[in-house]
């Protein structure tokens, strides 16, 4: 998508029209130029006929209703541009640009990612970044399904799968940069990316395939190992049913919650603080907690597990394995994550069954009970891997241009396994050695689930949540900007408790360091911990 680039003459004309002939007002002149250009006619000129802007609207400061149950608050006045672009003949990607006016804009850009397979824009993430002064961008990943979980839009449309899985962020970033410059007469001085889950997946696609787009990325709970992630969802379904049955689960949600309670009771104090949060669940080895210690001695009841239920737990702890080669296809889930398992073990069909049924095998009648962990994984990776999997540890192009990446992951994430993020980081370290810390930092978050939420200190600018009195020491976006602009690599980011929880703060440490309690101070205060 190519855009008309304003010349000095046209920019000057715009300033004169907007400002009554006085272009000496500094920021107010830029504000008036943006106001003047915030219309389709001004921005559309010079666009190819195949691409178009749908609207350009000045939005007053305050609130922005997005539907019957959602209203964004505390927004600056901004120009909201809606447009469409395409990455190929069979591609259509809708996007929005929100640019604060005048001094409210810090001169920088944040592009936001998506969640799951949904085309919904991450409006909370956009609002979070715009409140900090950024122009923000979001897109629909290249499909317009009304059902956020539908995947039929990819049937016979590999280009749309490619848009969703790899290139839509790149496709909307280039025109957005140009439109912001057209709107304000000023190119964004820095461009960042912010996303979690599929948004983290999109960050990995950018680092590996489009390294020149951003000066820095924030990638939460990245689902970049997409095919293997869906192997895990399938594994959970198959492990928790009688063979050939799509009915009742063996391990119930209530029993899963019970296991988590027992795990935390057994292993909470291993980090030196009994606070309901495990600093590192991998410390909770069988020497401290053995799932078989919960086996019922007589009849099944709510405070024990049957033999069949224990076997389900052990299978999910183990994770999917190739029975022919012995390869671990995806990491097993950690003790303490059990309460979250039910959300992704499926009901009468596996979660993301259509990934296999419609995308990988093109067989609407496919029976998941026939899944072969050797043959079918290889088959799916051959078909879909180039479109959706981003597992290369080679980030030389990203690193050599000075770009930075902050990756974060909740230790209690029961959707995308946190161990997979650790494995990727270690692969990057193996390739890049000591230089890894110059461009990538990984932060593991005790007590946090998928992207946000959980017990303990889980708010640090993640999931569109603004940290109180945000600065580089407690907020992801501030930390990334300080690293890019000032070279201050984050060694720790202080997280706080959710607003509805008891006050608590704790440092998140750059992996592999962890927060160690000093044994003296307030265990709910970050000042009582150091990263070691």
From TrEMBL:
Pfam families on file: Tannase
GO molecular function: carboxylic ester hydrolase activity; metal ion binding
SUPFAM superfamilies: alpha/beta-Hydrolases
InterPro entries membership: AB_hydrolase_fold, Tannase/feruloyl_esterase
UniProt keyword list: Calcium, Disulfide bond, Hydrolase, Metal-binding, Serine esterase, Signal
Alphabetical list of Gene3D superfamilies matching this protein: alpha/beta hydrolase
Chain ranges passing through the membrane: none
PROSITE patterns per record: PROKAR_LIPOPROTEIN
Family that this chain belongs to: Belongs to the tannase family.
The name this protein goes by in its record: Tannase/feruloyl esterase family alpha/beta hydrolase
Taxonomic source organism: Lampropedia aestuarii
């Amino acid at each position: 998508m190519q855009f008309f680039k304003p010349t000095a003459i046209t920019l000057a004309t715009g300033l004169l029209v907007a400002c009554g002939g006085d272009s000496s007002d500094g920021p107010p002149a830029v504000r008036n130029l943006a106001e003047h250009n915030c219309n389709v006619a001004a921005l559309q000129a010079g666009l190819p006929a195949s691409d178009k802007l749908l609207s350009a609207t000045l939005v007053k400061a305050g609130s922005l209703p997005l539907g019957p149950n959602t209203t964004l608050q505390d927004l600056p006045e901004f120009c909201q541009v809606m447009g469409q672009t395409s990455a190929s003949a069979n591609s259509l990607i809708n996007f929005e640009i929100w640019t604060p006016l005048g001094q409210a804009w810090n001169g920088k850009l944040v592009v936001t990612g998506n969640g799951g397979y949904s085309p919904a824009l991450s409006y909370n993430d956009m609002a979070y970044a715009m409140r900090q002064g950024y122009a923000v961008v979001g897109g629909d990943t290249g499909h317009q399904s009304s059902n956020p979980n539908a995947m039929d839009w990819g049937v016979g449309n590999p280009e749309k799968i490619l848009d969703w899985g790899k290139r839509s962020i790149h496709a909307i970033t280039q025109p957005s940069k140009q439109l912001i410059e057209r709107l304000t007469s000023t190119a964004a001085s820095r461009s960042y990316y912010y996303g979690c889950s599929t948004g983290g997946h999109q960050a990995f696609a950018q680092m590996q395939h489009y390294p020149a787009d951003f000066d820095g990325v924030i990638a939460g709970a990245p689902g970049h190992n997409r095919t293997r992630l869906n192997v895990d969802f399938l594994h959970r379904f198959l492990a928790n049913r009688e063979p050939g049955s799509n009915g009742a689960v063996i391990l119930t949600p209530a029993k899963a919650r019970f296991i988590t309670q027992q795990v935390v009771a057994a292993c909470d104090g291993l980090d030196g603080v009994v606070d309901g949060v495990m600093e590192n669940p991998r410390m909770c080895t069988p020497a401290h907690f053995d799932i078989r210690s919960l086996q019922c001695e007589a009849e099944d009841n709510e405070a024990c597990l049957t033999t069949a239920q224990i076997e389900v737990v052990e299978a999910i702890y183990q994770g999917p394995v190739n029975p022919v080669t012995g390869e671990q296809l995806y990491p097993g889930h950690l003790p303490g994550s059990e309460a979250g398992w039910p959300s992704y073990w499926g009901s009468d069909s596996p979660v993301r069954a259509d990934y296999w049924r419609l995308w990988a095998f093109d067989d609407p009648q496919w029976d998941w009970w026939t899944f072969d962990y050797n043959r079918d994984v290889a088959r799916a990776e051959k078909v879909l891997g180039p479109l959706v999997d981003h597992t290369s540890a080679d980030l030389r192009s990203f690193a050599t241009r000075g770009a930075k990446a902050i990756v974060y992951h909740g230790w209690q994430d029961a959707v995308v396994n946190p161990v997979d993020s650790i494995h990727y980081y270690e692969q990057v370290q193996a390739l890049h050695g000591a230089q890894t810390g110059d461009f990538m930092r990984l932060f593991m978050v005790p007590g946090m689930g998928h992207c946000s939420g959980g017990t303990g200190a889980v708010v640090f600018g993640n999931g569109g949540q603004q940290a109180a009195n945000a600065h580089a020491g407690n907020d992801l976006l501030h930390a990334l900007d300080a690293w890019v602009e000032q070279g201050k690599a984050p060694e720790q980011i202080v997280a706080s408790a959710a607003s509805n929880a008891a006050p608590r703060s704790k440092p998140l440490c750059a992996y592999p360091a962890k927060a160690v309690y000093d044994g003296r101070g307030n265990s709910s205060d970050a000042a009582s911990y150091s990263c070691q």
